[in-house]
Amino acid sequence: MKKNEESAYVRLARETIENYVKQGKIITPPKDLPEEMINQKAGVFVSLKKFGDLRGCIGTFMPTQENIAQEIIKNAISAAIDDPRFSPVTVFELEDLSISVDVLSAPEEVKDTSQLDPKKYGVIVSSGYKKGLLLPDLEGVDT
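Above: the chain sequence. Below: its structure as tokens.
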């Protein structure tokens, strides 16, 4: 996907990462964002890939910021800089990153695994204090 074809969500994540990696600055959300990005709250995951391989992924199950735009900004920086599985993204990698942004709807409990369709829905699994999330339609995951 070319930069001028990106959604407002991905464009915000890309601008955030580029500004932070190049200048160490956290951007202010642009004024021309879609209304839902300013007026709604949601959990958001930002995933980075480089040449098809995961390069970073950080997100929140539930909103922690005042709106979706702020949630994207926070998680985009974290995915690029703070994912403990990877070293921080460098300025030399920016051109090679593909970015995806997943905005989560409110979780719904299911009583039976037959209700799960990982191609359509994400899945949150918890045990005690630990939680994990499988985003929907994840490449390489067969159901």
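The chain has two domains: 3-106, 108-143.
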